[in-house]
Amino acid sequence: MSTNGKLSLAGSVSLGAGVMIGAGIFALVGQVADLAGDWFPVAFLAGAIVAGVSSYAYIRYSSVNPSSGGIAMLLKDAYGPGVVAGSFSLFMYVSMVIAESLLARTFGTYLLRPFGLQGSAVLVPVLGVLAIAAATIVNLIGNRLVEGSALTTAILKIVGIAVLAIAGLVAAVGHGDGLFAQASGDPVDVLGVLAATTLCVLAYKGFTTITNQGDDLRNPERNIGRSIVISLAVCTVLYLLITVSVNASIGASGAADARDYALAQAAEPIFGAWGVGITVAVAVIATLSGLLASLFSVSRLYAMLQEMHQAPSLPRRITHQPLLITAGLAIIVTAFLDLSQIASIGALLYLTMDIAVQGGVLFALHRKINARRWVPGLSILLDLLILIPFTVLKVQSDLLTVLVAAAIATAIVVAQVIAVHRRSTTDAR
User: Fold this and answer.
1) Residue 5, Cβ neighbours under 10 Å: how many?
2) Would the pTM count as exceeding 0.90?
3) Do 339 and 350 meet the contact criterion of CB atoms below 8 Å apart?
4) What domain count does the chain have?
5) For the domain that residue 17 is a member of, what is the CATH number?
6) Would residue 70 count as lying in a domain?
7) What's residue 197's pLDDT?
């Protein structure tokens, strides 16, 4: 558990896995299946590879300079305290806030599934907002409650997802028509699989929140890297089990039709109504615990950005500003964007930021952190390999979402230019 209020390795893994095993697997399966077809389990495996290669830079930096603002500090070290570091730090922060909204709306979608109201344009965001509010209150109580609840819920959802996946696979093999009975037989769409991998990375990117635990983690120089590796490994196994099970149950077309609640839909043909109920219960636990873990970690990143004068502050009389600002922004996104838009914007911002992180390690920090340069170089190539097809397909099918993402990115950069100019003017005086 924890000592003197510090997170243990188990607590850190619980928080990291808690962020990853949430909306990523419950909300994205249908969207990924729509892009990748029968190969959507392969897309989730490819996403694990991309995230695994990317994690090397974060692990190496955190082993040398652990802090509560791990990514922000990395970017500052690589690019200096200017517009570039500030902009990409906020890219990361905003992508994390968007991920919290993905968790919140997934919570609402699955909770309403037994009542046939999962498509409600009113109830889904309302429940999502309530979930964020509840998670914020728990986080206000303190580290120990967050860690304790994260450890318990992490065990529950890992066991729940594993049981559902394994039972589904056994049923498909023993009593059904086999694992590939629902396959369409269509040829592989390489561009579709690559684009789908972009969304799958969202299911793993929660590992980056672990880098923000430096000030709250026991022995962070060793445990941050261990926590990231363990969390990624656990999630990869679970995602492969569940996606193969979904493919065997309803196939890619069934998952794409169900879209936002594909896992619940996949449970029905094999397990009936009780299977849907169990899936909904696991989804509710997963998304709520993911919100708890994400708010805990992301608010610490925002606190670091405030200390670096890269993010705005509220009046000093208001306490817990990072947590309240993070929750407030997540509520706004939850209220106004749907799951598809949230996932796409989050993926675009995150991968853009990750390219900047990898570039910083490749060209500026490799000696300082004793990193092998070919790894961040490979990570940049992998990011571009999936990001370009995804962007092209999104421009063709959903131009508005791409424009919203571009507008957010532009607003962040402009705000940083103004902030840096004001800071320079003040320093000059």
Assistant:
1) 11
2) no
3) no
4) 1
5) 1.20.1740.10
6) yes
7) 97
